[in-house]
Write a structure and sequence with these properties.
The complex is a heterodimer of chains A (257) and B (270). With 257 residues, chain A is an alpha/beta fold. Chain A contains nine helices and ten strands. Chain A has one domain: P-loop containing nucleotide triphosphate hydrolases (Rossmann fold, 3-Layer(aba) Sandwich). Chain A has a six-stranded mixed β-sheet with strand order 6-7-8-3-9-10, with helices on both faces. Chain A has a four-stranded antiparallel β-sheet with strand order 2-1-4-5. Chain B is α/β, with parallel strands linked by helices. Chain B is built from ten helices and ten strands. Classes of the chains: A alpha/beta (257), B alpha/beta (270). The interface between A and B is large, with 37 and 40 residues.
Chain lengths: 257, 270
């Protein structure tokens, strides 16, 4: 199946960085429907820069972002609206990503309003449905974010991300701020949403355990370049790069009992 | 004699909410113990209470005897001699332990000078040795750096060097690797494990991560909502948890681990 979203030989240099110093260098990747993709790497590997380019928040210094087979052009309003509806995001910290002064109903309904997908009753129905798919009651719409735990907030953030029925969810360390039990629940939720709502997740994480639990394919980044990629079992079980082996062996494991 | 005896510890926040309830445990010299729990479980407050470092307004009741001194209700001047010499602390975020304006060498020199009474060239040599001991390459350059000029892993190594400077008998590490990358985490855990073993220190290792705790200690106390719900060997907490919360906690940790292990096995066979 053809890719929904991709990068074509993309490089990025931050302004003010030394000439020739690239945060991302020559990266190509595809988000293929039904194949959750994990982007793993340590701090400074360029994973967040990549994610920002995929979101259209940063323009590549060279190379192209491809959306539905065409280069993403942020001046093309029609394409951008379609893009915003199809590609949504969830951030790491469910405390800073939700506006504390807005009720949950308004937060989750925001994409529906701003993308002019629906209004009134139809919008309310979409919000209720999104909340129910993340395991929350539709009654939470009248509450404020501070009334919820970290795990519930991340569910609210996911509800906001899926309310426009996107095809791709870009998630930046979506569970690393969560407690262990909640973490496992949110991973299960993301996996379920994939099959129930035809949603493909691209997850950026430094936690290989979480990537192993959710992603069919894995890309390993180091210093702005892809050093290894492939089906997750292949990358994890039979890595070809010493760096990948180093990452894998560093993952803390439970004692065998 | 036990190095630390915590009995019926209660910690109460300013609004009157009990954050730690009736927690008791002991640590013998050289013993290692894990405090496991999720956010809000009271594990960090328990750790802070041991050294009398509770946030203002938060009060402790019950008994904490550290190296023969009652910590609960003790005036600050009785606690100061315990800190660093008897018990030292490593925080999750090393920046909280480091002064951004002071060169790292000078910061490290302070406790070493106080504890070992060294000055001048001798003090300088001891500082460089302390930096070498935490496996920092180029200690000379590190001593001249400030905390914002070095990486997170390097900062945590410097924080460890500072914590160990006064040769404490008990080290309390509160999520010391949670903010670090996975490879750096692994290196810092290896370093801590070796230093604690070499010096025969006792260790209280506070973490939400069972796998990380299991690298440092065989025994742990599981905390939930301020209570110590279960204690035992990590193998037993995983294989035969008695409390339903421990069971749920272990199950979640195992599920993520199992998916990871399955991916690896599948790739090896394939």
């Amino acid at each position: 199946m053809s890719a929904i979203l991709g990068l074509e030989d993309v490089s990025y240099a931050y302004r003010g960085s030394h000439p020739g110093q690239l945060a991302v260098e020559g990266v190509s990747l595809d988000v293929v429907p039904g194949q959750n993709l994990g982007l793993v790497g340590e701090s400074g590997s360029g994973k967040t820069t990549l994610l920002r380019m995929l979101l259209g928040l940063l323009r590549p210094t060279s190379g192209r972002v491809i959306f539905d087979g065409a280069p993403l052009d942020l001046r093309d309003r029609g394409q951008v609206r379609h893009f915003r509806r199809s590609v949504q995001t969830v951030f790491q910290d469910p405390y800073s990503s939700l506006d504390p002064r807005q009720r949950v109903g308004r937060i989750v309904g925001e994409p529906v309003r701003s993308l002019r997908i629906a209004s009134g009753r139809a919008a309310e129905k979409m919000v209720a449905e999104a909340l129910e798919s993340v395991g929350l009651s539709a009654a939470v719409v009248s509450h404020y974010p501070h009334e919820f735990s970290g795990g519930q907030r991340q569910r609210i953030a996911i509800a906001r991300a899926i309310v426009s029925r996107p095809r791709v969810l870009l998630a930046d360390e979506p569970v690393s701020a969560l407690d262990v039990i909640t973490r496992s629940q949110v991973i299960t939720l993301l996996a379920e949403l994939g099959s129930r709502r035809d949603l493909t997740v691209l997850m950026v994480s430094h936690d290989l355990g979480v990537v192993g639990a959710l992603c069919e394919r894995t890309v390993v980044l180091k210093a702005g370049r892809i050093v290894e990629e492939g089906p997750t079992p292949q990358v994890f079980g039979d890595p070809s790069e010493p760096y990948t082996r180093q990452l894998l062996s560093a993952v803390p494991r439970l004692p065998q009992v | 004699m036990n190095l630390l005896e915590v009995a019926s510890l209660e910690v109460t926040s300013p609004d009157g909410v009990a954050r730690v309830k009736d927690v008791s445990f002991t640590v013998a010299p050289g013993e290692r113990i894990g405090l496991i729990g999720e956010s809000g479980s009271g594990k960090s407050l328990t750790a802070f209470a041991i050294i009398g470092l509770l946030p203002s307004g938060v009060t402790a009741a019950g008994s904490i005897v550290l190296d023969g001194t009652q910590v609960v209700g003790a005036p600050e001047k009785h606690l100061v001699p315990l800190r660093g010499r008897v018990c030292a602390f490593i925080f999750q975020e090393p920046l909280t332990a480091l002064d951004p304006l002071m060169k790292l060498g000078r910061q490290l020199a302070e406790p070493i000078a106080r504890h070992q009474g060294l000055r001048g060239a001798e003090l300088r040599r001891a500082v460089l040795e302390a930096l070498e001991e935490v496996r920092l390459s180029d200690p000379e350059r590190m001593a001249e750096s400030r905390s914002y000029e070095i990486s997170g892993g390097q900062r945590q190594r410097v924080a460890i060097a500072m914590a160990l400077a006064c040769r404490p008998q008990l080290l309390i590490a509160d999520e010391p690797t949670t903010a670090l990358d996975v490879t750096v985490q692994s290196e810092v855990l290896t370093l801590l494990d070796r230093l604690v073993a070499d010096r025969g220190m006792a260790l209280i290792f506070v973490s939400h991560d069972l796998a990380v705790v299991s690298r440092m200690t065989d025994h742990a106390i599981v905390m939930r909502a301020g209570e110590a719900v279960e204690r035992g060997s990590i193998a037993q907490l995983l294989a035969a948890p008695k409390h339903p919360y421990t069971a749920a906690f272990a199950e979640s940790a195992r599920r993520i681990e199992a998916d990871f292990a399955a991916a690896i096995d599948q790739g090896r066979d394939g």
